[in-house]
Automatic annotation (TrEMBL):
It comes from Rubus argutus (Southern blackberry). Gene3D superfamilies: 1.20.1280.50. SUPFAM superfamilies: F-box domain. Transmembrane segments: none annotated. Residues 12-58 form the F-box domain. PANTHER family: F-BOX DOMAIN-CONTAINING PROTEIN, F-BOX PROTEIN PP2-B12-RELATED. It comes from the Eukaryota. CDD domains: F-box_AtSKIP3-like. It holds the Pfam family PP2. This is F-box domain-containing protein.
Length: 269
């Protein structure tokens, strides 16, 4: 016990003397980053900071239901901290392998990628324009490779009930080019993101440029060696029950295009 300063006689229990369950409850109201810091700098807090009480609070409520229907149901048997960081670094497949689920490492918000097979791709089932191939660096069994089109149109939807509530989400087309890619230099693409039944936000982006440039209208390389271009953003309200729709359209000009490989569209905070 320690007497308060400024002459006060009221006494407070030392934080370090609190039962481990109390420490864990307190830490669970912080953040994943705070819990990791406490675990690394204080032996007195390490056990509490790594407990299921803490990390269960950071996991989305639907985590175990999603895992039970995923490509890795065995993950549910691990500690909650292990589940958290595994899902941050290693997305699992859901919806018959046509969507992936992961967590944002900063805050535990849900992230999803819709595979190319679950997108609509104009002429995507016409072999002279698109082919479906396997790619060793894709999380999905198939990706879509563009052989030759003039008009490029890709889109997808996701149920907002899958997303974390009260969260600002951004959508990204995840892609790469083959060595024979052609027709994308200086190509302008109109992209939209919005809830079905509302007016979508629109902007123009570029898939390729001779020099890497900053700004969300230009592509950026990801840690998994794919590239991504931001399509737009939307705030997912608490209790939202609609579909989020994303589109990607390059229809101006007569330039034929080839060599684009589409892995999917990722939605993340």
């Amino acid at each position: 016990m320690k007497t308060m300063s400024h002459g006060a006689k009221q006494e407070l229990p030392e934080l370090l003397e609190l039962p481990e369950g109390c420490k864990a409850t307190i830490i669970s109201f912080t953040s994943p980053q705070d819990a990791c810091r406490l675990s690394s700098v204080s032996r007195n807090f390490k056990s509490a900071a790594e407990s299921d009480t803490v990390w269960g609070k950071f996991l989305p409520p639907e985590t175990y239901t999603i895992l039970s229907q995923s490509s890795a149901p065995e993950l549910a048997a691990r500690s909650k901290k292990e589940i958290y960081f595994t899902l941050c670094d290693n997305p699992v497949l859901i919806h018959q392998g046509r969507m992936s689920f992961s967590l944002d490492k900063r805050n535990g918000k849900k992230c999803f990628m819709i595979s190319a097979r679950n997108l609509w791709i104009i002429w995507g089932e016409t072999p002279q324009y698109w082919v479906w191939i396997s790619h060793r660096e894709s999380r999905f069994d198939e990706v879509a490779e563009l052989l030759n089109v003039c008009w490029l149109h890709i889109g997808g939807k996701i149920d907002t009930r899958l997303l974390s509530p009260s969260t600002l989400y951004k959508a990204y087309l995840v892609f790469r080019f083959t060595a024979e890619a052609h027709g994308f230099a200086h190509l302008t693409v109109e992209v939209t993101v919005g809830l079905v039944g509302t007016e979508a936000t629109r902007k123009t982006v570029f898939l390729h440029s001779q020099e890497l440039m900053d700004g969300d209208q230009y592509p950026k390389q990801r840690s998994d060696r794919w590239w991504e271009i931001e399509l737009g953003e939307v705030f997912c309200e608490e209790g939202e029950d609609r579909e989020l729709e994303m589109t990607f359209l390059a229809s101006e000009g007569t330039q034929w295009k080839r060599g684009l490989i589409v892995q999917g569209i990722e939605i993340r905070p």
